[in-house]
Amino acid sequence: MHEANRNPELALLPATAAGSDSAAGLARRLGLPLLASGSSPLDCDTHDALLIVDGRALRLQRTGRGAPGPVAVDFGSAAMRHRRHAGARELLGRAVGQGGKKMLRVLDATAGLGTDAFVLADQGSEVVLCEREPVIAELLRSGLQVAAGSGDPWLINVSQRMSLCPGDARALAPGHLQGVDVIYLDPMFPPRRKSAAVRKEMALFHSLLAHAIDPQDADALLLWALRQDVARVVVKRPAKAPCLAAREPSHTISGKAVRYDVYVHRKLP
Ligand SMILES: C[S@@+](CC[C@H](N)C(=O)[O-])C[C@H]1O[C@@H](n2cnc3c(N)ncnc32)[C@H](O)[C@@H]1O
Is residue 36 classed as helix, strand or coil in its secondary structure? Predict the structure, then answer.
C-alpha cells in the first residue's frame, strides 16, 4: 500500500512525568499505546507519529530524524492572526451569508483543524464543530481549551462562540441542529499530484485521513445536509472540481484556488 494511504501507527507521549495520568486517560479513550515520558520523538522507531500531551496542549509529531514540525490547533498563531486580514475569509463569510443583523449559527460538519470554523467565529457566527476522526477532535478540544485559558480577550471571546461535537455530523442529536442557519462542508479531496500547497506538516494530517477520502462519502454528506431544515448549505470545493453529488448550487462564490457552492433553501434570518 502507498505510504500516504496507510493509517499511521500512533502512540501517546506525555511531555513530562507530571502529565502521565491525564495522558493515560486520553490513551485509554483513544485506544492508543502510552509511551513513558522522556521518550524522544526523534529516536522513536516503533511508531510513525506521536500525540504529545503537554499540559492542556496537544500536538501530533511525526517520528524520526528530519521529521517536519508538529501539527497542532493553535488559534492564537501568527498564521491564524494573518488569516483575519486575508481576502479568502471574506469569500467564506459571503458564502455563509454573514453581515446581516442576526448572529448566525453555523454547523461546521467537517471541522478538521478548525481553521474555517475559527474564521467564521471571529466574524461573529456561533459555530458548532463536528469532527469524526477522534485524534483530530482531540486536537480541536485542546486548541479550544488553550484559547480559553490564553488570557487574550480576543481569543477567549472567539473561542466562546465555538463548541465541539466529536463524531459524525450525520449522527448529531437533533438538539444540536436546532437553530442552525447554515451547514458548512469542506470535505477532504485527494491532493493534486503537482500541488505544492500541502505543507510538510499537513502531510501527516492528510495521512491520518487518507483512508477516509471517499468521494461518495462527501456526496452522501451533502445529500444529508440538503435534507436538514437550515437556510443554506455551503460547500468548499477546489476551483475546478465538479459539484458534489452532481447537484448544481443556487450560486457560487469563486476564489483563485477554491470556490464555495451555496445551496439556498430560504432567506437567512
Ligand atoms: C478538509 S478537512 C476540513 C478542514 C477545515 N475546514 C479546516 O479549516 O481546518 C475535512 C475534515 O472533515 C472530517 N469529516 C469528513 N466527513 C465527516 C463527517 N461526516 N462528520 C464529521 N467529520 C467529518 C474529516 O475527518 C476531516 O478532518
Answer: coil
* Ligand 1 atom with least separation from CA of 116: 8
10-14 vs 49-54, strand pairing mode = parallel
Residue 69 CB partners (closer than 8 Å, separation 6+): 61, 200, 201
Asked whether 232 lines ligand 1 (CB < 6 A), one says no
- Would the pTM count as exceeding 0.90? yes
For the chain, the first-to-last Cα distance in angstroms comes to 49
143 lines ligand 1 (CB under 6 A): no
Condensed to tens digits (0 to 9), the pLDDT of residues 15-32 reads 998 888 889 999 999 999
Looking at ligand 1, which residue's alpha carbon is closest to its atom 26?
Answer: 112
pLDDT digits (tens, 9 = 90+) for 65-100: 888 889 999 999 998 888 877 766 789 999 999 987
Calpha distance 119→114 (Å, rounded): 9
Rounded to the nearest integer, the mean pLDDT of the chain is 89
**In this structure, what C-alpha cell is assigned to residue 98?**
454573514
Identify the CA nearest to 233 among candidates 48, 69, 106, 49: 106
Residue 5 DSSP class: G
pLDDT in tens, 37-64: 988 888 888 899 999 999 989 999 999 8
Quick one: CA dihedral 118, 25, 213, 173, positive or negative?
negative
Closest ligand 1 atom to Cα of 169: 20
